[in-house]
Amino acid sequence: MQGLMQDWSMTLDKILDHARANYPDVEIVTRSIEGPIHRTNYGRVWERAKQVSHALADKRVVQGDRIATLAWNTWRHLEVWFGVSNMGAVLHTINPRLFPEQIAWIANHAGDKVLFLDLTFLPLVEKLAPNLHTIETYVILTDREHMPQTSLKNAIAYEDFIAGRPTDYRWGDFDENTAAGLCYTSGTTGDPKGVLYSHRSNMIHAMCVNQKDCFAVGVEDVVLPIVPMFHANAWAIAFIGPMAGAKLVMPGAKLDGPSVCDLIETEGVTMTAAVPTVWMMALQYLRETGKRPGKLRRVAIGGAAIPETVLRAFEEDYGVEVVHAWGMTEMSPVGTLGALQAKHANAPIDERMRLKLKQGRALFSVEMKIVDDAGKELPHDGKTFGRLLVRGPSVAKAYFRNEGARRPDGTVLEADGFFDTGDVATLDPDGYMQITDRAKDVIKSGGEWISSIDIENFAMGAPGVACAAVIGVKHPKWDERPILIVEPRAGADAPSREAMLAHLEGKIAKWWMPDDVVFVAKIPIGATGKINKLELRKMFQDYVLPSAQAAE
Amino acid sequence: MQGLMQDWSMTLDKILDHARANYPDVEIVTRSIEGPIHRTNYGRVWERAKQVSHALADKRVVQGDRIATLAWNTWRHLEVWFGVSNMGAVLHTINPRLFPEQIAWIANHAGDKVLFLDLTFLPLVEKLAPNLHTIETYVILTDREHMPQTSLKNAIAYEDFIAGRPTDYRWGDFDENTAAGLCYTSGTTGDPKGVLYSHRSNMIHAMCVNQKDCFAVGVEDVVLPIVPMFHANAWAIAFIGPMAGAKLVMPGAKLDGPSVCDLIETEGVTMTAAVPTVWMMALQYLRETGKRPGKLRRVAIGGAAIPETVLRAFEEDYGVEVVHAWGMTEMSPVGTLGALQAKHANAPIDERMRLKLKQGRALFSVEMKIVDDAGKELPHDGKTFGRLLVRGPSVAKAYFRNEGARRPDGTVLEADGFFDTGDVATLDPDGYMQITDRAKDVIKSGGEWISSIDIENFAMGAPGVACAAVIGVKHPKWDERPILIVEPRAGADAPSREAMLAHLEGKIAKWWMPDDVVFVAKIPIGATGKINKLELRKMFQDYVLPSAQAAE
Hints:
3 domains; Rossmann fold; 7-stranded mixed beta sheet; Luciferase, domain 3
């Protein structure tokens, strides 16, 4: 028996319509790329987003066409965002921090028809243009006055592109599973893969992310999304802002400590979100100047594990609540949040911090489980670690153009519909998840798993160590055994093999003890600042363990 | 182009699964019908709800079957709630405050197969049983020890009904538009009509109601739903609790001031919801005893317009934030919420109170408009009033068994898919809605509308008036004209016709002035405490206006 409730398609136009009907004069403030602070409001953004749709329709853009942006967080990006998706086209937000050749590869793979770009990226795009095979129109996100000379063909200033267009474009009116956005993962191996969000997945995700224990944004809030709109929906903030009627403060291209802290103070920011590195800069600035973070009451931190110093600085020094979130592009992106439960209220501060440093509990609508190599579910005891699988309405089931497909229907899912995050994690009885390793870095020894990260963390603490890495190498009996690779600190006494092993003794299980310790001049670091284990594994592919020789 | 996100059906079993995975030991505390305080948690409620599903399946209950409850807010009601819906059956919550013959009519109309009832309602149901034609099993929500003698055939104690059942019932796995719940409106005219909620409508509604500006319940909250679970989903709290991991405090049958305030204090309640009359009792108790409402930080008030004294007592005397909500059974039920915007933060307190007394802004996912008799949309100027129409994923499109259908497809909607609330309201430029009248009470004079309630409110303030009502009577020229009906206060000097009109002069538009004033000994009051205008219109159906005689 079907219910008798209205058929109301969860399309994203409903979000901006809601903002216009209820908060037309709530502000969107931007540190513009041209320089000055710019002010507009939801009523005008709604009108101009309609004009964007009209202008695109004029360029024969139809439902399903991919429209790209290479842009910072600004009001114009927000207008394009809704103008594209609300007409049924697909907003492809390109990460400008990728290598230029990757950007060209992505734009061609997506088949982008129009590219909206900030002035910042004009030199880059001019260089790439000969290799961009599908883009017919370049819209520079500026006005005629600031429009530079350009070698780009079919380039037009944004303000000219939309000027004088009608504001009556009919948005929505299509299935909620229609594609709304496209975002490529910057996969560490292989080509980037496109995650194709739907209107439904984005709306459900925004509703869930804005629950009280996660972002909790309301009409009295002032929200500064430092996380870029080209990073997986700016963690949903571009949707949550108009949904909740919050004032948005857009930082444009300036994400340094002074610029960010200045906006927080002058615009009365109450909530903000960014990766840890931004906060390290901002906190340093606050410490050096003795300033305080104004009315800020809550920061969301994700994208990388949060350093304890950052957590404590916000919560203890400034009284700002930290929401530790974890996720991935394939999860729209938020998967977990770190809010503590009532029973933890009276726990000692160190215990609270320990819990907050975990990746957190599942956001409502996200199901999580850990499994072993055979796919068998493992206990939620906070100790056993296994492959972390996730399921939910805002989790990807496949990649654009079936890249990486594992099944005939093009999906990349496990047989039971779960998505493999590629992480290895523990889950405790209260659902708190902690990532212990990347699945490909786990060492599989005699059918059991050894966490490379756990050993590394202890090894890093040994005297004279600049950097330490653990990888698995082939072993005839145990399949794999760990070796510890050490980069000695310059100027310090180089630690010995025996000293390293003695340092680990008692800290890790006996059978986790590395079978060998190898010293190198430099451990390779990847573009994201993490140890490049792929490179390390290549370096040691012909390495034969002393213990392996013994076993043969 | 379709997005590539997972197909995840929004079925309500996901809510309880989420609670079990993340907050298994968060409590549900109940003032039990048997007397003592009872404590359980989400982990155990999950298990026992599975047992309910098994027990019902044993009674050959299948998807689509209607299963009724006549019950207060208790942990057992919560178990039945999820046990029924999660297996695809339809939970029919019957309002025990209806007339007994209405209860029987409703149960027969719904075709209920099983009835779960509290001990409180056993005498009532025993009397009704001969007229209950579809119920095969009666489950008394108690244990064997408290099971009374009963004349009901096939009656069983709840604890015996579920005892020893397995906990592995497979929930969900069906379309999210599947019917989940059935609730009849206690329509003032005609037979009650059934609103058939779907899994989807209930889940979206719960996500929206729990946004920061509405209920804002998180894992550290302790929530006391005084609003009964038989009133339109307890305003979504039975879903929000397990979704957010909040501790639930269930008041059972005792909703008086001392009982409610005792629970608030002893259980550390932070958020609660009820109709205004409950608060009037509770506030009186607090005032008389000098007690304070413990840790309470937020109350949701709805179901009837909120008296200013209640609003001010909470906000000014006790520092408790009031969320004024408006809705109706057909809206799941919440339609609007009263949160103020940032720009009102510095408004004088009286202006803030005036805004908070309005019915509020649209909940996200609710679209509202006001239209004239021809269906033309009216301006949002805060003055013009028109029929209030609503649209959204949690708004009814039809009633059970096509009752009241206006269209061949069985729906009751307007041509553009909006639902007519039957209210007349204004909307201001910020979306704040204010109900000015019931549509059927509005007086239509010369093509314009006159609000009966506005005139009544002024007339009530005249000396010597106990009660005042305004209705429209037929007029040959103007179609309808208002007359003022006055019940003089006992013991006071009865006011004169002239004095009444003089009192209104200057307060209302000239053409709103009643054409006559009539005095009656008693103005009829309906079961809900409101003026019975239907009865009044009957009393005055043959009344001829002096002005009508003049016009003829």
